[in-house]
Amino acid sequence: MIENLPPCPKCSCEYTYEMNALVVCPECGHEWVPAETGAEGGDPAGARVVRDSVGNVLQDGDSVVVVKALKVKGSPSGIKAGTKVRSIRLVDGIDGHDIDCKVDGFGAMQLKSSVVKKA
């Protein structure tokens, strides 16, 4: 257990609490991994760490499962929750889309790591 929890990076609330491996803000509901903020600022190796919606570290070639239904522009139906995506590739995408993949029935696209869970 972390004694001095960091304030929320989104709203600066100081009343954060620990829930499993995450730190949660009670005011705005933001959840984050506390080691993640320290690693970004002072990581000597410069390696970027991409985490899924529950805090698992993702790597190239992993399989993930979509955790919420996603609308796809130009498609009458979207990607359903529970859809498995194989062989992801981590990229520096636009607007937080940091996973490059092929989704069955939709083709190549980019996803945000916050909407997937490691399979």
TrEMBL record:
Which GO-annotated molecular functions does the record name? Answer: hydrolase activity
Q: Which NCBIfam families match?
A: phnA
Domain (Protein YjdM C-terminal) spans 50-119
Which InterPro entries does this entry report, sorted A to Z? YjdM (IPR004624), YjdM_C (IPR013988), YjdM_N (IPR013987)
- The Protein YjdM N-terminal domain sits at 5-32
Family to which this protein belongs: Belongs to the YjdM family.
* Keywords linked to the UniProt accession: Hydrolase
What protein name does the entry list? Alkylphosphonate utilization protein
